[in-house]
Amino acid sequence: MQRRVLVTALSAALLLSACSSAPDSKQAQQASAAASMLSSAPPPPPSPPAPPAERGALAEARTDQIVVTGTRVRSPEVVASARMLAAPAPAAAAVLYDMPAPPPHGQAANTERYAERDDNPVQRASEQPVSTFSIDVDTGSYSNVRRMIRQGVRPPADAVRAEEFINYFDYGHPGPASLDTPFRATTEIAPAPWNARRHLLMIGIKGYDVPKSDLPPANLVFLLDTSGSMNTPDKLPLLKQAFAELTAQLRPQDRVSIVVYAGSAGLVLPPTAGDRQDEILAALDRLEAGGSTNGGDGIRLAYAMARRAFIEGGVNRVILATDGDFNVGTVDGGSLDTMVADQRASGIALTTLGFGQGNYNDALAERLADAGDGNHAYIDTLQEARKVLVEELSSTLLTIAQDVKIQVEFNPAQVAEYRLIGYENRMLAREDFANDRVDAGDIGAGHEVTALYEITLAGSGAEQLPPLRYGAAQAAAPGARGDELAHLRLRYKRPGETTSRLIETPVPRRAIRAEPGESMRFAASVAAWADALRGGTHLGTWDWRAIAEGARAARGHDRWRLRGEFVDLVDASRALVADGGRMEDPAVSAVAR
Predict the structure, then answer these.
(1) pLDDT, position 495
(2) 315 neighbors 397 (Cβ within 8 angstroms)
């Protein structure tokens, strides 16, 4: 019965191909003959298997899924057989098209995992004048979402982290003159492009940029996932290319170890001098994917190797590359977080690099990097690997300030409301700001950190919260500086120190600019795109077209064409949403905190 269905479908496809190619009578005759031969062929016996002469494209074709909608035949098996048995026919190609390739390894559904998050709420300055959060230098959310958009997939909302979108780009914040002050903080305030009655406050932090040649010796452990789930081109093969790029940057004073894990962990390369690159590359080239994923054992062995080759006063870091699909040994996220957090006191940091799709565990990769005083990036292309591991090598490897916290106190006499854009999973309690035992984000050499607040000035009439029935806005406290919009405080520790240092700067009202600068306009466009992908509840008068136009107008100097690529992504995602593009399974959009 199945063969008869296949024969009927193939005959129809071949006849349609022949008819559409009428000028070529020989081709039509060949197609008709092939269809006739198929229709008259006897069905094969159920056993034993057909002889080799009868096998081939037809024997490989299956009829377990033939879906007909109107005139469109959606069976990839029929399409493949028709293409092999008949000459190409443009008209047939118009009605026969391929379904997306099935997930690798027989995986039935997308199991990517993203941490649940809600946008920061609008706050009344009179009720909650202080906002406190940890800095974030991760960029993985942006490149991961870029991968989805390029594939025609609308990303789940929880995959979008606005602060990582914003911090993917360089805004030219001025840096400090020397490493004596590891970073410099600046502010800019101007009308919000989506609502001129509100304003944006941009906080920029720039770390001291240490040239690659001046980096201290590095002790690096490549902790590489070689489990069976890594056996696709966008995983282990891309991983090998990425780490080959990093290997090319190593110097004789550097040390590299390679630890792999699948069903168990193993040492592939003991600590090896950075100038022995042939040995390092050969070790990478030998890696193959297979087995289950015992990430816990891999992490333990990697830290053991990092301690063995520890360089006092140098860079000591584990670089974990994985799709995050831990399924053997220590698999609980909380236990892995604790394991990594316990190790950071030893002076060994952890960076995580995400690879692949379908089972990517973004939530785990981000949390491990946070716990390990490191950063998280997602590698979707070799170009992204070069950006993270070559162009940004100093900031990826060398930490110049630890536990960096930001606190903004808004003056209720000047600011009615405010909203922090992004950083939802970086929020800190007010008392945590001065508590040096509370962990926060780190800044690498040359790193930039950008944060945006949308604020509503008192008396502007643009308030978003309804007035209180029994409460009124508090007047400024006696002696308060009425000309200040806000007061910015930053705390940080130098590497190896346990006591934080404080930087303070006021934000005066006279600093308001009539128009935002180029950097703020581009950052605003990035923030707006992130909001649009999450549902577009804070866009004011802006729409998809305005976001793209705003970014295009503020593109400025674009050495690596990253801003131009952003404009392309906005246009692609606008079309994707308008066309009702494929949407990730909502069941995989979040994982409980």
Answers:
(1) 92
(2) yes
